[in-house]
Write a structure and sequence with these properties.
The protein has 256 residues and is mainly alpha-helical. 66% of the residues lie in helices and 7% in strands. The protein has helices spanning 5-18, 28-31, 40-59, 64-86, 107-138, 167-193, 200-205, 212-253, and strands at residues 91-92, 97-98, 101-102, 144-148, 155-159, 198-199. The strands form three sheets. The chain has a two-stranded parallel sheet with strand order 1-6. Strands 2-3 form a two-stranded antiparallel ribbon. Strands 4-5 form a two-stranded antiparallel ribbon. Strand 4 and strand 5 (155-159) form a beta hairpin.
Length: 256
């Protein structure tokens, strides 16, 4: 299966409209501005991100206290995206290929697409789960993970913090919070999808853009340590969440 060319270009074009978000230190005033149309789902996403950041900072336990909840959030996003593709009544397949062949917008294509997404996106997050589990296990004693630099053989300790005894409660609260905050946005998307024709390849691609900050955090956040890493990770994820939320809503508002 290949991703659609034209829909991908449209997504990147939409991203240019929201790139100004990265220049703001605080995101809340942007979405609480009374001159702007109300967007309660965006507010919910921002507030949930801030709650996770504040909780991780107050706990003082380190970067892992932020990486695990945001892994949960990414899984929640994938879940809602599968549900969204499953609920499509009509859709287009422009640019979508399966086994290098164009496909028609049939129920079989719809089923193949969301299953492919589920396996690929799910497999990606399973690998991340293993990665985080290993990180958590290695950091249990000292709060840092030894990493060997391949070129020099030097071993560097990356500070990622430790998971406290109440980690499971923290994970459960994060799961519920993200299910609620993204659930409202999901309902808005589904209502609009039923009125318009979406490209199913575009819907499959969108969630992948939200995991980019996770890659950047692993490389940069751990180097900065707990304080800087927490703030960096939180800022990257919050900007990505709000930006993609705005991208999706701009797509929803575009006349077909």
């Amino acid at each position: 299966m290949t991703l659609p060319g034209p829909p991908l270009r449209r997504i990147l074009a939409q991203l240019s409209h929201v790139s100004h978000l990265t220049s703001h230190v605080c995101l809340l005033p942007i979405y609480l501005d009374p001159q702007r149309p109300p967007d309660s789902s965006a507010r919910g996403i921002v507030l949930m991100n801030l709650a996770v950041i504040v909780g991780a900072l107050v706990s003082g336990e380190g970067l892992l206290m932020l990486m695990w909840p945001y892994w949960i959030q990414s899984v929640v996003i994938g879940y809602y995206n599968v549900r969204r593709m499953q609920k499509l009544q009509t859709f287009s397949t422009d640019g979508v290929k399966i086994n290098d062949r164009p496909v028609s917008p049939t129920r079989a294509t719809q089923r193949q697409t969301w299953i492919f997404f589920l396996l690929h996106y799910g497999g990606f997050h399973f690998v991340y789960f293993i990665f985080l589990a290993v990180f958590s296990s290695q950091a249990a004693a000292t709060g840092s993970v030894p990493v060997t630099i391949e070129n020099t053989g030097q071993v560097v300790d990356f500070e990622v913090g430790r998971l406290p005894d109440w980690t499971l409660l923290w994970m459960a609260a994060s799961f519920v919070g993200f299910m609620v905050s993204h659930g409202q946005s999901h309902r808005e998307h589904v209502e609009s999808d039923l009125r318009q024709t979406r490209n199913i390849g575009t819907l499959m691609f969108i969630p992948y853009l939200r995991v980019i900050p996770m890659h950047l955090t692993i490389i940069l956040g751990a180097v900065l340590g707990n304080g800087g890493g927490l703030l960096l990770f939180g800022a990257l994820k919050t900007v990505a969440d709000v930006a993609m939320h705005k991208v999706e809503h701009r797509m929803l508002q575009r006349p077909r």
